[in-house]
Amino acid sequence: MINFIHVLDDNVINQIAAGEVVEGPYSVVKELIENAIDAKADSIVVEIKEGGKKFIRISDNGIGINEHEVEQAFMRHTTSKITKINDLDTLITLGFRGEALASIASVSQVEIITKTKDQQHGILLEITGGRIVNRKVVGCPTGTTIIIKNLFFNTPARFKFMKSTQVETSKISEIISRLAISKTDIAFKYINNNNIMFTTSGKGIVRDAIINVFGKEIAKNLIEVDESNKEYEIKGYISQPEHTRGNRNYEIIFVNNRFVKSKIIFSAIEDAYKGSVVINRFPICFLYLNINPSLIDINVHPAKTEIKVFDEQAIYDFIYDAIKKSLTKESTVSDFKINL
Ligand code: ADP
Ligand code: MG
């Protein structure tokens, strides 16, 4: 239909933006957990039903949202995290675009209950397809609980593109697992269809979190990596060469505490294993790299996991040597905490 030129309704704009921000249930889970982390929660409970397609609930004990700002949080481009563009240079939060809540609320049924520590009571707000349908004062603890029901109920084309419950569940599990082993000072609880999938203690011990999330069997066969020089530091665990996987799903790498997939880092690791693992088998690793931020360009798009490394040869050599060293020495496994 050709029409006169007009400004789009905010809700339509949000639904269009949701096409980018809300790829599926797993991106809802990611955005909401990141909000809980940004709110300084040290306990986060994630509950999903039917792969998150029907129901997602994230509860945190973070700072909560002030009663006068709850509606505002669901508007487009509203954030408490940055004010000017230069703030991005010193960003310490995971979010900053102020798009997630507005986008999610425009394509689902949302209920939020939130309270700050200075308020006596909390606020419950219900939003359906971007429109507020209920607001009331409720009693609740400090923090935020947000429930997302019936994702894409009002956008049939998007609804159709959601995958099976099993596929959507595994994407969500992957996201939560990564967050739980990178934010080990937060106690996570993950519940899927009323079954507790895992809990972490929040005590900051990386090996314990790996055991809780990935199981004792994987953790049993890990060797420690711990090397550093002026510019790079690598800590973490890698598998003995005889314990490998058929894909790269267990090559989990964090750079400056952010999950990344980097070709150069994968090659450095895999080359170090060459000769000791069969072709098309991949090591298991949980590696935490700290790199001087001026030596990398982290693409800040929320959905991207690539990074750009300025001196590829230097990082390759550093990682290759660190992995080789751990594989060849008689390694003892100790516990460590990551600097968060
Ligand atoms: P962003 O995270 O990019 O700022 P969001 O749309 O995800 O944008 O959230 C908007 C705002 O709502 C945040 O800046 C924050 O102030 C508030 N908010 C969202 N989730 C929470 C939460 N779990 N606890 C406290 N505040 C929250
Ligand atoms: Mg956010």
UniProtKB/TrEMBL annotation:
GO terms for biological process: mismatch repair. Keywords: DNA damage, DNA repair. GO terms for molecular function: ATP binding; ATP hydrolysis activity; ATP-dependent DNA damage sensor activity; mismatched DNA binding. One of its GO terms (cellular component) is mismatch repair complex. Residues 210-328 form the DNA mismatch repair protein S5 domain. Belongs to the DNA mismatch repair MutL/HexB family. This protein is involved in the repair of mismatches in DNA. It is required for dam-dependent methyl-directed DNA mismatch repair. May act as a 'molecular matchmaker', a protein that promotes the formation of a stable complex between two or more DNA-binding proteins in an ATP-dependent manner without itself being part of a final effector complex. This is DNA mismatch repair protein MutL. It comes from Serpentinicella alkaliphila.
